[in-house]
């Protein structure tokens, strides 16, 4: 039987997570399917920002480092986030950017391997990994060679199916994104980590498209290092600080390549020589962006009202519905599904390639449906179970069908590219 709009409305009525939508400031007339790139604004964020600026900064001034708890904020937020990724207390800090945190942990992992197994000189990653991950690896390799270290190699695979053949005893680090940003393909973290460890390699996981969207258990997977951002499914705000996790077995052996004063054992002793703190706090670097950090808490607070298991179940229901509706309504058009239909291999997005993908996305946005576009020809639709409704899925596919049927995308205005696509 074809899926109807009434079916979708009925599913919304039965959705136990539906009340959480009211906690987000979503514009009228907009179907937002880009939470995999930038999460929606929690309604509490505006009041929190005003409090930080007007009261804590405006009245408290420098006293707020103590009186408002600013100094402890990276660790406190890290503990709040930890349960979403299968981490323990005092194992996560929210700080810096994903790129900076990736540099820290990759440099530390390579140094760790250099001390234990100096012949390991290969970093394995995916060619379709998020580019900044590859750029950081390339830059670090260049930096190490410039300082006389033996040459490292970045070995790129074109498909997850090639992992087993790419990981051998020469590999020092396996650098992977848990959910691929283009395709939404989700790797088996436990099996992949076991593969790496069998060859004496360490794992660095990028959780940017996982945290807050899918169930992650870093401890159960025996992962080594992980990083991720807070502005996607965690709804921390544009450019909000990222997070960093290190397994406790590595924490106090971790070499901090960016040895800033916030990671010092006694930061206010103002000593001329660096001595790292014990535990996760040694991964901090410089003074923290307090206003941005404070916004992260508003996004994390919503997760305390549900579980990742419940969110994951709704996410799969939303993405499956979208795939089925596109098949039902848009089958006559040149859409190529590049996201796995197997639910165990799918994150919380659905990606299609279309020869005019960019123009189609711009036409959708003009009609109030907001996905995003990535090269080559990829239309990404992100589903955030905290606020996406089943009715939204139905309406979004109806608009997509109309745009494709009428060729409404075939206008010069929808081919113009701005700085951000």
SSE inventory with pairings:
Layout: H1 5-13, E1 31-32, H2 44-57, H3 64-67, H4 73-82, E2 92-94, H5 98-116, E3 122-126, H6 131-146, E4 153-157, H7 163-166, E5 171-177, H8 189-198, E6 202-206, H9 218-221, E7 225-228, E8 243-246, H10 248-251, H11 290-303, H12 308-329, E9 336-337, E10 349-353, H13 357-366, E11 369-370, E12 372-374, E13 378-382, H14 390-406
Parallel strand pairs: 1-11, 3-4, 3-5, 5-6, 6-7
Antiparallel strand pairs: 2-8, 7-8, 9-10, 10-13, 12-13
Helix pairs in contact: 1-14, 2-11, 4-11, 5-6, 12-14
Query: Residue-averaged pLDDT, rounded?
Result: 97
Structural classification: alpha/beta
**Count of discrete alpha- or pi-helical segments spanning 4 or more residues:** 14
Number of strands: 13
Distance between the termini: 38 Å
Helix fraction?
Answer: 25-40%
Q: Strands across the major sheet, in which order? A: 2-8-7-6-5-3-4
Uncertain runs: none
- Series of secondary-structure elements, N-terminal to C-terminal: HEHHHEHEHEHEHEHEEHHHEEHEEEH
Proportion of residues in β-strands: 5-15%
Shape: globular
Integer-rounded radius of gyration: 22 Å
Major sheet attributes: 7 strands, mixed
